[in-house]
Design brief:
This protein is of the alpha/beta class. The chain has 9 helices and 10 strands.
């Protein structure tokens, strides 16, 4: 796939922590305009891979390109193209939701009129009107996810990279986020979504990559990777196994 066809291209990305290889020479291309799911068991290297892809963690080897722009040799240009929601994102906790969006917009270099309008739009669509003056330190985990997504969208990126965006989000808020992300892709944006919830990935995504032990076990259009099975069944066959039939803990009643 050419640079011009890829929203994100990873070329031989590797990362070692002491004697543990977290990511092992990963090559991966995310097509422009795709809703791309990244799945894998705990400890598979998904978060490390995404952190290197977007410029939060320097790789030991390899390169990452966002719409053809090298993340590590041209970080300022690359980061204008991407909005990021990391897992466990740290936020300024003594600001309200409105203040946080205003601060982040100005920090991004947006003019005050644009920041004000986009802040209003995001507070509305993510249902923050009743909580816009609540300090972030008092937000629930789900509210933090939503305000984090708002900061990722604020500068109108072409690519969203979201690490577990639906974790601890209530069903109504999850529906709002799904609709927003689907609209983003429909209007030409690209989304990379990391999640452990297979039905969610299967419902939202048109492409998927399965990561296991720091390597890509399978990648491509969702139908091709699933090959007539559910994503959960394909995932288990690629990276894990089911418990033996009838096996149980003898000491449990």
């Amino acid at each position: 796939m050419k640079d011009s066809d890829s929203a994100l291209q990873l070329i031989g990305l590797s990362k070692q922590f002491e004697d543990h290889t977290a990511v092992n020479s990963v090559n991966l291309s995310v097509p422009c305009g795709s809703f791309f799911g990244l799945v894998g068991p705990n400890g598979a290297g998904k978060t490390t891979l995404l952190s290197m892809a977007i410029g939060l963690l320097r790789p030991d080897q390899g390169a990452s390109k966002i719409f053809g722009v090298n993340v590590w040799s041209n970080p300022l240009q690359a980061k204008t193209l991407v909005g990021v929601l990391p897992d466990g994102m740290s936020l300024p906790e003594r600001l309200t939701g409105r203040e946080l969006l205003t601060y982040m917009g100005l920090l991004r270099g947006l003019d005050t009129k644009t920041v004000a309008q986009r802040t209003e739009d995001l507070l509305d669509i993510l249902d923050f009107r009743d909580d816009e003056r609540t300090l972030v330190i008092n937000y629930s985990t789900g509210m933090r996810k939503k305000i984090g997504l708002a900061t990722a969208l604020l500068h109108s990126p072409k690519l969203l990279v979201l690490d577990e965006p639906f974790e601890a989000v209530d069903p109504i808020s999850a529906s709002t986020i799904r609709t927003l992300l689907q609209s983003f892709v429909t209007t030409g944006g690209s989304v990379i979504l990391s999640s452990h919830v297979m039905p969610l990935v299967e419902q939202l995504c048109d492409h998927v990559a399965v990561i296991a032990k720091g390597s890509v076990a399978a990648t491509g259009p969702l139908d091709l990777v699933c090959n007539g099975k559910s994503l959960e069944e394909s995932f288990i066959s690629l990276v894990g196994h089911r418990p033996e039939e009838g096996k149980k803990l003898s000491w449990l009643m």
